[in-house]
Amino acid sequence: MHGCRLQGGRPEISTSSVLWKLSGTMFFLYLLIVGVSAFTIQPEERTVPSGNCQFRGKHFKTTFGVEGEPVVLRCPQVRYWLGASASPHVNLTWRKNDSAGMAPGGEETQVRVEDGALWIVPALQGNSGTYICTVRNASYCDEMSIELRVFKKTEASLTFISYPQILTLSTSGSLVCPELSEFTRNKTDMKIHWYKDSVLLDQANEKFLSVQGTTRLLIHNVSVEDGGYYSCVVAFAHNGTLYNVTRNIKLRINKKEEETVPVIISPHQTILASLGSRLTIPCKVFLGAGACSTTVLWWMANNTNIESAYQEGRVTEGQRLEYSENNENYVEVPLIFNPVIREDLNTDFKCVVHNTLSFQMLHTTVKEASTFSWEIALAPLSLVLFVLGGIWMHRWYKHRTGKAYGLTALKTGHQDFQFYPSNIKEIK
Ligand SMILES: *[C@@H]1O[C@H](CO)[C@@H](O)[C@H](O)[C@H]1NC(C)=O
Ligand SMILES: *[C@@H]1O[C@H](CO)[C@@H](O)[C@H](O)[C@H]1NC(C)=O
Ligand SMILES: *[C@@H]1O[C@H](CO)[C@@H](O)[C@H](O)[C@H]1NC(C)=O
Ligand SMILES: *[C@@H]1O[C@H](CO)[C@@H](O)[C@H](O)[C@H]1NC(C)=O
Ligand SMILES: *[C@@H]1O[C@H](CO)[C@@H](O)[C@H](O)[C@H]1NC(C)=O
Ligand SMILES: *[C@@H]1O[C@H](CO)[C@@H](O)[C@H](O)[C@H]1NC(C)=O
C-alpha cells in the first residue's frame, strides 16, 4: 500500500479522504468566489434597486398656490445633483404622498412633469398635500418631499400666502414680485399689474412705478401709509388658455435707524457680594440716538457663554431691557447669581456688546464683602501714612531743588545713579 489511492484499498479510508479532498476543493472554490466577487459582483450590487432610496427629509419651504392659477414645484434636492435635470442618466420622478403614484400622462392632464419640475395647471385645493421627488442615477438615489398648499383667492388667504418685504421710511425702494421665474422665462414683454389693498395702482400715479420688463414696483418717498398688502399679477398662457399668476406681498415700513458706538456704563470693575446671597450685576449700555435692535449684548464667564458655563442654571442671564431716558436709548442685560459661591470670586466675568460699528467688552470680578475687612480697618491708617509721606516728600524736594543742575550733570556720568537721599548725601 502506498498511500491512499482512489481505487482499492480500504474503502472507508479512501472515502473519507475523498470527502476531505472534495471539501478542501470546495472551500478553496468558495474562497475564490468570495474573493472574485469582492472585485466584480459587489459594484454591480451597489446599483440602487427601485424602492431603496435615501430620504433627505422635507424641504423647509412650503409652496403656496392660488386656486385656478398654475403652480410649479421644483425638485428641492436637484441643486445637490449638478446638472441633474439636464443629464440623460438621471431619472427624476414625482409622486404625491397620499396616492400610490402620480404617473404623468399626456399633454392634456392637469398635472405633468416638464424639465424636472412638476406643473399643476390650474391648481385646485385638492392638489394640496405632500409631494415627493425622487432623483436616481445608475449608482445613487435620493428623495425629498415638499408641501403644497392651494388656497381660494380671498382676502383672508392673503395673510397666509404673502411674502414679507421691508422698505425704509422716507427713502425710495422697490417691491419685487417673487417666484415668477417659471412664468417669465423667455419673455421680453412681461407686464405685471400691481394692486395695493386690491386697488389697481395707476401707471399715472407718481408715487408708484411698475418698471417695464422687470418684476419691480418702485415706490418713491416711502411713507407709513405705504405699508400693507400688495398683489402683483402676471398673465401666463398655457395650451391656448390665459391664466393669471398672483403673488402677495406684505410690506412693512421700517424707520431709518441710526447706529452709534455703544458705551458700556456698568458694571464696575469689582462688585462686592456676600457668599450665599443672591446677586444681580446689570450690564448697561448707552446708545444715545442709536438703535437698540441692532445692538447685541451678552455675558461670558471665563470666555464661555453663561448657558454653557452654568448648565445647572445657578448663574443666568436675565431678561434684556431696552428703554429710553431723556430721548437716549439704553440696553441692559443683568447677570444673576443665585447664590454667589466661592468659585465666582476666581471667575472672570465680562459683558460683551456688539453692533455694526463696534465690538466692546468690560471685565468685572466679584469680591467677597466680609463684615470685617482689614483693608477697610487700615484705610484711615494708610491715609495718615500717605499724608505724612507727602509732607516729607515736599520738604525733601524743596531742599533738593537748588542742586538740580549738578545732579543732572552727575547722572550722565553715572548711569546706575539712583535718586535716594543717601546717594545725594554721598555726592555732596
Ligand atoms: C450619480 O449621482 C451621484 C450623486 O450626484 C454621483 O456622485 C455619481 O457619480 C452619479 N453616478 C453616475 C453613474 O452618474
Ligand atoms: C425612469 O424611471 C421610470 C420608473 O422607474 C421608468 O419607467 C423610466 O423608463 C425611467 N427613465 C429613464 C430615462 O431611465
Ligand atoms: C406620507 O404620509 C404618511 C401617512 O400620512 C406619513 O406617515 C409619512 O411621513 C408621509 N411621508 C412624507 C415623506 O411626508
Ligand atoms: C416725502 O414725504 C413727506 C411726507 O410723507 C414729505 O414731507 C417730504 O417732503 C417728502 N420728501 C420728498 C423728497 O418728496
Ligand atoms: C387676470 O387678471 C386680469 C387683471 O389683472 C383680469 O382682468 C382677468 O380677468 C384675470 N383673468 C383670470 C382668468 O382670472
Ligand atoms: C474660571 O477660571 C478660574 C481660574 O482659572 C477657576 O477657578 C474658576 O472655577 C473658573 N470658573 C468657571 C465658571 O469655570
Describe the structure.
Residues 43-147, 174-250, 262-373 form the Ig-like domain. This is Interleukin-1 receptor type 2. Belongs to the interleukin-1 receptor family. GO terms for molecular function: interleukin-1 binding; interleukin-1, type II, blocking receptor activity. By secondary structure, the protein is of the alpha+beta class. It has helices at residues 11-39, 41-45, 155-158, 181-184, 306-309, 374-400, 404-413, 421-427; strands spanning 54-58, 63-66, 71-73, 91-96, 111-114, 117-120, 129-136, 141-151, 162-168, 173-176, 192-196, 199-200, 208-210, 216-219, 228-238, 241-254, 263-266, 270-273, 279-288, 296-301, 304-305, 315-317, 321-325, 328-337, 349-354, 359-368. The strands form 6 sheets. Strands 1, 2, 4, 7 and 8 form a 5-stranded mixed sheet that branches. Strands 9-16-15-11-12 form a 5-stranded mixed sheet, with no helix packed on it. β23 (321-325) and β24 (328-337) form a beta hairpin. Mean pLDDT is 76; it is low at 1-48, 103-108 and 402-428. The structure holds 2-acetamido-2-deoxy-beta-D-glucopyranose (6 copies). Residues 301-302, 309, 343, 346-347 line the site of one 2-acetamido-2-deoxy-beta-D-glucopyranose.
